[in-house]
Design a protein that fits this description.
It holds the Pfam family ECH_2. This is Enoyl-CoA hydratase/isomerase family protein. InterPro entries: ClpP/crotonase-like_dom_sf, ECH_dom, HIBYL-CoA-H. The protein is of the alpha/beta class. It folds into 2 domains: 192 residues, Alpha-Beta Complex (2-enoyl-CoA Hydratase, Chain A, domain 1); 132 residues, 2-enoyl-CoA Hydratase, Chain A, domain 1 (Alpha-Beta Complex), CATH 3.90.226. It is built from 15 helices and 10 strands. Helix 1 links the parallel strand 2 and strand 3. The longest helix is centred in the middle third of the chain and has 24 residues.
Length: 369
């Protein structure tokens, strides 16, 4: 069966990511199938709304699968590693087409509902939708585990991360990007990374309501569920500390302030910040500060420049991204050799090099956005 299952029920286009053994990680073929489906439905008057979910595994069911499960673990990082070392041009194609897909999702002119159950990581956030208020709805559950952990593999929070993380309340975006912390459904809503929190057993009925009755039927059901929201326990962030500490101008300044704070929360946070690629932590902070005031198309073009540099500023195999993926997913020794080893040693000029476009404007791969 295909890694992407598309169908139309009633007037709703339904997409199921169907690669559960890989946690629905996105391949280039999946990106192309998603773009093809959305472009077709965008111009089809018979389709009034679109919904997307991830297929899960459930050994207790007759088919060995569950209709809802992990949404998506993002891009296929093993492919990134292999393609980078082999000089495979499909690596360039993947990022260009993935970011084009993110833009298609964000500007989709019809209601777009994402059911973000289970793991929602990296590239999964890009296809969840992060714009067009009133046109997109991101549904999370108590099982949602959301994160943008890219600096853990020597990358940066791409797929528009400079846009949507920069628009989180206060400095939550910087905090989530630099710690790579995993948050639950209630926290995702509080961070403006999701819109509605529901109990996971309700997902099948909500999916069917949308398929059979359209967006109005879904909204009606959700309105009834919202009457119980006041009784739901809310997971809280350390907002005062986060806003104060993560508003500082540099990563070394943030690290020093966390150390000076000395609270258990601050020291745990500092430990998370220190574990990631120092270079890419500094690149990421600059990305978010720039992206906060940029349009999404401009952010995606900037991130396309940045991801090109992740694989080409240094010789093949010597960049932070290849090394980070090696340590996490290839050799699995969890001992990346970051260069430099500390944020205090990062050269600001190397950071700025990530923001110089390798293409003139007329030849940029995302010039049409």
């Amino acid at each position: 069966m295909s890694d992407i299952v598309c169908e139309v029920r009633g007037r709703t286009g339904l997409i199921t990511l169907n690669r559960p053994k890989a946690l629905n990680a996105l391949s280039l073929g999946m990106v192309r199938q998603l773009a093809q489906a959305l472009l077709a439905w965008r111009d089809d008057p018979a389709v009034a709304a679109v919904a997307i979910r991830g297929q899960g595994r459930d050994s207790s069911s007759p088919s060995g699968s569950a209709p809802f499960g992990n949404f998506s673990a993002g891009g296929d990082i093993r492919f990134f590693h292999q393609a980078a070392l082999a000089g495979d041009p499909q690596l360039e194609d993947f990022f260009t087409e993935e970011y084009e897909l993110n833009f298609i999702v964000d500007t989709f002119p019809k209601p777009y509902v994402s059911f973000l159950d289970g793991i929602v990581i990296g590239g999964g956030m890009g296809i969840a939708g992060h714009g067009r208020a009133g046109q997109r709805m991101r549904v999370v559950t108590e099982r949602t585990r959301m994160s943008m952990p890219e600096t853990q593999i020597g990358l940066f929070p791409d797929v528009g991360g400079g846009y949507f993380l920069g628009r989180c309340p206060g400095r939550l975006g910087e905090y989530l990007a630099l710690t790579c912390n995993v948050i639950g459904g209630a926290q995702a809503v509080a961070a403006n990374l999701a819109d509605v929190l529901v109990e996971s057993p309700r997902l099948p009925s909500l999916w069917d309501a949308l398929a059979e009755g359209g967006i109005q039927a879904l909204e009606s059901r959700l309105a009834r569920l919202r009457t119980d929201e006041a009784a739901q326990p809310q997971e809280l962030f350390e907002r005062e500390r986060i806003d104060r500490l993560f508003s500082l101008p540099t990563v070394p300044a943030i690290a020093a302030a966390l150390a000076a704070d000395g609270s258990p929360w601050a020291l745990e946070t500092l430990d998370a910040v220190r574990k990631r690629s120092p270079l890419m932590q500094c690149v990421t902070l600059e990305q978010l500060r720039r992206g906060r005031t940029m349009a999404l198309a401009d952010v995606l073009r900037m991130e396309r420049d940045m991801v090109r540099h992740c694989f080409h500023l240094r010789a093949a195999g010597e960049g932070e991204t290849v090394e980070g993926i090696r340590a996490l997913a290839i050799d699995k020794d969890n001992r990346p050799n970051w260069r430099p080893a500390r944020v205090e040693e990062v050269d600001p000029q190397e950071v700025m090099a990530f923001f110089a476009s390798p293409w003139p404007a007329h030849a940029h791969p995302l010039r049409a956005l």
